[in-house]
Amino acid sequence: KHAFEEGEDLLRAFDYLLMLLIYNQIEQIEKGIEPDDFINPEGFGYLERKTLKEAFNLIVNIYDVIEKGYRTERTP
Q: What is the domain range of residue 53?
């Protein structure tokens, strides 16, 4: 893939993750719970889980490219 396409994919993944976080926090507020950054994926359907997995795989792939390009090591 061209770097521009990977950048677009990364932006879409970020948008998706941010959307999940915002919806989760709205739900917490509506329930009277202090909003936090934890999202429990147990309530996700098949498509949400698949999309989440693809987003994280994309992020891992980008880290690998950066790691190879700059000869750094990823910290767990």
A: 3-70
